[in-house]
Amino acid sequence: MSTVQEVLDHYKQGVQERNLDAFLSAYSSDIHIYDCWGAWESKGIESWRTNVNDWFNGLKESEETLIVGFDDVVIEESANLAFVHCAITYAAYKEGSEEKLRQMTNRFTFCMKKVNDSWVITHEHSSLPISMENGRGMFHLR
């Protein structure tokens, strides 16, 4: 992927197709991720592979497709490093249907580096605001 935008497009396509290998090809082998779900962090591509595989298998079992939308994308880029922050909305649909089952929006930061003239994600951080009243993630602010 020769541009940062192509990495983001690849991310969207990988999720929608639930294609584990295609999705993971956007990441560096030494990826470090702070995700909203489950563990505090994932270090290395194999750890991330396990998480994403579980995610995609759950979608397959429930016969759901996720459509990913990026909003408020800001890209800062130098010759070998790029920084992206944005809002990502995941909208779930039953396979073959146009009826939306649910959606949520997370805040994301991606750090990318250039390897062999292609951008790869080297760090990813997703987050949700937390309600001060009940300590729960606030999924539906956007």
Question: Can you tell me about this structure?
Answer:
This protein has a single domain, classed as Nuclear Transport Factor 2, Chain: A, CATH 3.10.450.50. A six-stranded mixed sheet has the order 2-1-6-5-4-3, covered by helices on one side. It is built from three helices and six strands. A hairpin with a 5-residue loop joins strand 4 and strand 5. Helices cover 25% and strands 45% of the residues. The model has no long low-confidence stretch (mean pLDDT 92). The longest helix is centred in the middle third of the chain and has 17 residues. The two termini are 30 Å apart. By secondary structure, it is α+β, with helices and mostly antiparallel strands.
Describe the structure concisely:
It contains three helices and six strands, in the order H-H-E-E-H-E-E-E-E. The protein is α+β, with helices and mostly antiparallel strands.
Which fold name is given in CATH as the topology?
Nuclear Transport Factor 2, Chain: A
Main CATH class: Alpha Beta
How would you state the average pLDDT, rounded? 92
- In which order are the strands of the major sheet placed? 2-1-6-5-4-3
Order of helices and strands: HHEEHEEEE
Strand content: over 45%
Largest sheet: 6 strands, mixed
**Would you report the number of β strands?**
6
Number of domains: 1
The total of helices stands at 3
CATH architecture grouping: Roll
Structural class: alpha+beta
List the helices and strands and how they pair.
Elements: H1 4-17, H2 20-24, E1 27-34, E2 42-43, H3 45-61, E3 64-77, E4 81-94, E5 100-115, E6 118-127
Parallel strand pairs: 1-6
Antiparallel strand pairs: 1-2, 3-4, 4-5, 5-6
